[in-house]
Amino acid sequence: MLGEALALSAVLFTIGVIGVLTRRNAIIIFMCVELMLNAVNLSFVALSKVYGATGQVFVVFTMTVAAAEAAVGLAIIIAIFRHQRSVNLQNINLLKG
Amino acid sequence: MQPNQFHSLVYEFAFYFFGLTAIASAIAFVTRKSPVAAAMWLVNVMFCLAGLYVMLDAQFIATMQVLVYTGAIMVVFLFVIMLLNLGHPSDLADARGKWGYIMALFVGLALLAEVMVLNRSNAIERLIPPDLAAKAAAAAAAPLAGGIIGPVAAPLFKEYLLAFELTSVLLLAAIVGAVVLGKRRTNAR
């Protein structure tokens, strides 16, 4: 089942990357990042079955970082929404030359 | 049919069921227009992953997945979506243009090809040192000393204690950062 789990993790990660590259809604892009983190967690857990439980410890750390990232990222999105009245990335182009 | 064989058949069926449901939900999540619908599909993906964690003998992680990811993080996402009233699809084009799709296609194909090559050549199995694999197999065969949480808790509070304490600092910084960013700027004076 190790190979299948790793392949599933890779497919989920790929779907997350495709979402980041094809969507313009900032919140959906942010959720795609969460999906990628979940895919990585799956490969950690699958490999921890072979390598021992240390992989699961790292999943705990990943979840903590994901929670912190979600809190700060959503606060940034709220600040951008106050400024621009939109979370569409088409409107957020200050750095565009 | 031997009971053992039946068990492995049920195991395999459940594994593929959760896996394929996760992939289908992830595709539905990426293609939904409405952010609320996308968030609900992502919750479904996370539940399927929790089921897979249980099947991979990581029951504690599965509990954390349901409590932290689907219970806390996704609720925060839905909260923000509804707070900003973004529940309906926006009038602006949500999908990027042609170049976004072409780039996504190339990146997706490259990543998938990489994984297929790795799986085909058994590179992952060869990367695992034999002594480590034997140790893990012996640990799996032995009765668990501290239940199902013991094997996770012992390294967390011994080897990785410093990292564990640093994550608490990280969470504190995130809380302060979220409050500062979310605060309305008042020009009282």
Task: List key phrases describing it.
heterodimer, A: 97 residues, mainly alpha, Helix Hairpins, elongated, B: 189 residues, Four Helix Bundle (Hemerythrin (Met), subunit A), 3 domains, 77% helix, globular
| Shape by Cα distribution of chain A | elongated
What series of H and E elements makes up the topology of chain B?
Answer: HHHHHHHH
Q: What is the rounded distance between the termini of chain A?
A: 49 Å
General shape of chain B: globular
Largest sheet of chain A: none
Helix content of chain B: over 70%
Radius of gyration of chain B: 22 Å
- Count of the domains of chain A: 1
Beta-strand content estimate of chain A:
under 5%
> How many separate structural domains of chain B?
3
Commentary on this structure:
The complex is a heterodimer of chains A (97) and B (189). Chain A is mainly α and 97 residues long. Chain A has one domain: Helix Hairpins (Orthogonal Bundle). Chain A is built from 3 helices and no strands. In chain A, helix 1 packs antiparallel against helix 2. The radius of gyration of chain A is 16 Å and the shape is elongated. Chain B folds into 3 domains: 89 residues, NADH-ubiquinone/plastoquinone oxidoreductase chain 6, subunit NuoJ (Four Helix Bundle (Hemerythrin (Met), subunit A)); 39 residues; 41 residues. Chain B is built from 8 helices and no strands. In chain B, helix 1 packs antiparallel against helix 2 and helix 2 runs antiparallel to helix 3. The model of chain B has no long low-confidence stretch (mean pLDDT 82). The interface between A and B is large, with 70 and 87 residues.
